[in-house]
Amino acid sequence: MLDKRTTNLLNKINELCAEGSYKIVETEELLACFSAKDKVDTEGLRHMLGYLCDRKYIDVKYAEEGVFCVSPLPEGRMYFENAQQAKTDVFRRRRDTVAMTVIGAFFGGFAGSMIAWLVSALF
Q1: What is the 3-state secondary structure (H, E, C) of the chain?
Q2: Edge-to-edge order in the sheet of strand 23-26
Q3: To 10 degrees, the CA torsion angle through 21, 27, 28, 30?
Q4: Which of 52, 73, 75, 91 has its CA 20 to 30 A from that of 12?
Q5: Does the predicted TM-score (pTM) go above 0.90?
Q6: Per-residue pLDDT tens over the stretch 46-105
Q7: Beta bridge partners of 103
């Protein structure tokens, strides 16, 4: 999993390179996706780009003074789809757990009341 800042950067690169090809972007353009409280500078941006490149989320063709040529790789484009799928899977498991708990509680209560009725009817 990526942290919030790296996820924002990957999302920005995916937006800029929507057609999937290489795009030349300036440092300021990439830094614009961060809020002031993230406190990301040029050096931090370079580290995040290196991290994404090492993990095969993006490809950096070249990096010069303030200019990068980047392209998202298939893994980088699929990251957000996989994250959404994971959220959906968690929701489904939670829903199934709640449904089984309710059904089990109903049948347990029904069986308990039937046993109580039988005991009171026989004695």
Answers
A1: CCCHHHHHHHHHHHHHCCCCCCEEEEHHHHHCCCCHHHCCCHHHHHHHHHHHHHCCCEEEEEEECCEEEEEECHHHHHHHHHHHHHHHHHHHHHHHHHHHHHHHHHHHHHHHHHHHHHHHHHC
A2: 23-26, 67-72, 58-64
A3: 50
A4: 91
A5: no
A6: 899 999 999 998 998 888 888 989 998 888 888 888 888 888 888 999 999 999 999 999
A7: none
Angle at Cα 107 formed by Cα 102 and Cα 112, nearest 5°?
A: 125
Residues in the chain: 123
Give whole-number Cα distances, 106 to 10, 12, 35, 115, in Å.
48, 50, 50, 14
Structure tokens at 68: 């990068």
98, two tokens: 């709640």
Q: State which amino acid sits at residue 101.
A: T
Question: What φ, ψ does residue 24 adopt, rounded to 5°?
Answer: -90, 125
